[in-house]
Design goal:
The protein has 3 helices and 13 strands, in the order ββββαβββββββββαα. It is mainly β. The chain has a single domain, classed as Jelly Rolls (Sandwich), CATH 2.60.120. The chain has a 6-stranded antiparallel sheet with strand order 1-2-10-7-12-5, with no helix packed on it. Strands 9-8-11-6-13 form a 5-stranded antiparallel sheet, with no helix packed on it. Strand 1 and strand 2 form a beta hairpin.
Length: 185
């Protein structure tokens, strides 16, 4: 695996190293020891699958609040998605910044998203499947999100959103929450 740091501390794009022959190719998509050597999360407790029949579908921007924060490792196994992570860690120098990467089975790319980040993706073609590992069990009371179209974040989605859940469409905007927060001492 080839680990490429993003502009957001702790977030990576990981490329599978493929070994090819006349049968096709082989690659490791996960190695606990290799992740641990790099100081990255080496323990995942759930594997999730998201199947999306239609181009333009948006899922996100999701996260779990502490102490249930989760690291995610995301891979597209069918179709193509634009995968986005946004830094929501209080006090982080890259707070509110985001990165996006196109994930496809052909590219062999994965996203590694630290705890404290919001995560979402948009399908770029019909019939997409996304697999991802998470480091914390799903806790409904800790489930949260921010709006995919929040002007504070300015995420540049590649397509018009054609399908989104009511929950994802109505996450709160950051600006009202920021103005209601007390000023730092």
């Amino acid at each position: 695996m080839i680990f490429r740091e993003t502009a957001l501390e702790g977030a990576y794009v990981i490329e599978l190293e493929r070994y090819s022959d006349e049968r096709g190719h082989f690659a490791r998509a996960w190695c606990r020891d290799e992740f641990a050597r790099r100081g990255l999360c080496a323990e995942f407790v759930q594997s999730n699958v998201s199947v999306n029949p239609f181009r333009g579908t948006l899922r996100g921007m999701h996260f779990q609040i502490p102490p249930h924060g989760e690291v995610k490792m995301v891979r597209c196994v069918r179709g193509a998605v634009f995968d986005v992570a946004v830094d929501l860690r209080p006090g982080s120098p890259s707070w509110g910044k985001w990165f996006g990467v196109e994930l496809t089975p052909q590219s062999g790319l994965m996203s590694y998203i630290p705890a404290g980040f919001g995560h979402g993706f948009q399908t770029l073609v019909d019939d997409c499947e996304v697999d991802y590992l998470v480091s914390a069990f799903y806790e409904p009371k800790a489930s949260s999100g921010v709006r995919h179209d929040d002007p504070v974040l300015g995420i540049e989605w590649p397509l018009q959103v054609t399908r989104i859940s009511e929950r994802d469409r109505t996450w709160p905007l950051l600006a009202p929450a920021l103005s209601a927060s007390p000023a730092p001492a």
